[in-house]
């Protein structure tokens, strides 16, 4: 028994070393991609804008002069003014926080929820798998955007955290399916069977052996999906079921711009920020997916 435990321990250590080496190789591969570096720097700017907007503007976004309503750019006001005469650059800067928070928190929550449920469904075939998979099938059967609109429309006071919570409720099935199928291919590998044979608890096996070797596809899928979350938050607010005034967001700016089509700068600037942030996330997701692809690493 002690010999088996030694073998299991040695193999687990070998796997851990392999993962460390893979992480280093992954970082080197990503840093060799100019598009990954550029997009990462752009996202750092967006994160700083969301965390500390006063680094980018000292103007109060809610200080308005109606006499300047919808005016174009001028000295000290590079984006012009909104319909209430508020500095539009300050509004766009302060509008970054909801988009960043919703995209990152919702994506991280979906990764954790989908990863956990996928681990359980893939490792415990039978009742556990059936319950999780059938629940996912029910959510798959109804269009997600419809569920979002119906639920959020029934909530009187919508905050960022309520929107994130509703997205989590409907957003985990796809990632769970991917994680489940990956766990199916790993659960009968030699190192997992060896760990079972010496009585290692199932949850420890999942945490130490299965999850680290099954997370790569879900991680790539999550990073690709972050960009979509940015657009989703903007779409929900534009449709009137997202954040409510006095909250400032890029989506709410879209909603206002739709009623003033003769004032293009009200649409151009939030659209530019949303598209830049979305494309940056997607390029980073593509880069991570390509770097994690075993065929490309050979």
Task: Describe the overall structure.
The protein is mainly alpha-helical. 73% of the residues lie in helices and 0% in strands. It contains 13 helices and no strands. It has helices at 2-31, 34-51, 88-94, 96-123, 127-141, 144-153, 160-171, 173-186, 190-197, 202-238, 250-257, 265-292, 294-297. It starts with a helix and ends with a helix. Residues 1-21 have low confidence and may be disordered.
In short:
With 298 residues, this protein is mainly α.
What would the keywords be for this entry?
disordered N terminus; 73% helix; single chain; mainly alpha; 298 residues; elongated
List the helices and strands and how they pair.
Elements: H1 2-31, H2 34-51, H3 88-94, H4 96-123, H5 127-141, H6 144-153, H7 160-171, H8 173-186, H9 190-197, H10 202-238, H11 250-257, H12 265-292, H13 294-297
Helix pairs in contact: 1-9, 2-4, 2-12, 4-5, 4-7, 4-8, 4-10, 5-8, 6-7, 8-10, 9-10, 10-11, 10-12, 11-12
């Amino acid at each position: 028994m002690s010999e088996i435990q030694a073998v299991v321990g040695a193999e687990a250590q070998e796997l851990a070393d392999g993962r460390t080496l893979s992480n280093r190789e992954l970082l080197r591969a990503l840093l060799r991609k100019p598009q990954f570096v550029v997009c990462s720097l752009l996202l750092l700017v967006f994160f700083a804008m969301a965390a500390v907007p006063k680094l980018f503007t000292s103007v109060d976004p809610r200080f308005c002069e109606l006499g300047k309503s919808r005016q174009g750019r001028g000295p000290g006001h590079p984006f012009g003014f909104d319909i209430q005469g508020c500095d539009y650059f300050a509004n766009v800067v302060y509008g970054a926080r909801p988009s960043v928070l919703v995209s990152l928190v919702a994506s991280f929550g979906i990764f954790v929820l989908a990863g956990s449920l996928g681990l359980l469904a893939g490792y415990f075939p039978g009742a556990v798998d059936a319950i999780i998979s059938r629940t996912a099938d029910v959510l798959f059967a109804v269009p997600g955007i419809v569920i979002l609109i119906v639920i959020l429309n029934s909530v009187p006071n919508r905050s960022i955290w309520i929107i994130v919570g509703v997205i989590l409720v409907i957003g985990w099935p796809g990632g769970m399916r991917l994680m489940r199928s990956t766990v199916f291919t790993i659960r009968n590998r030699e190192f997992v069977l060896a760990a079972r044979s010496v009585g290692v608890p199932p949850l420890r096996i999942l945490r130490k052996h299965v999850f680290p070797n099954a997370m790569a596809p879900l991680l790539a899928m999550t990073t690709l999906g972050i960009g979509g979350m940015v657009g989703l938050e903007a779409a929900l607010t534009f449709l009137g079921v997202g954040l409510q005034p006095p909250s400032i967001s890029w989506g709410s700016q879209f909603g206002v711009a739709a009623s003033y089509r003769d004032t293009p700068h009200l649409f151009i600037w939030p659209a530019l920020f949303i598209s830049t942030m979305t494309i940056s996330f997607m390029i980073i997701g593509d880069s991570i997916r390509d770097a994690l692809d075993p065929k490309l690493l050979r």
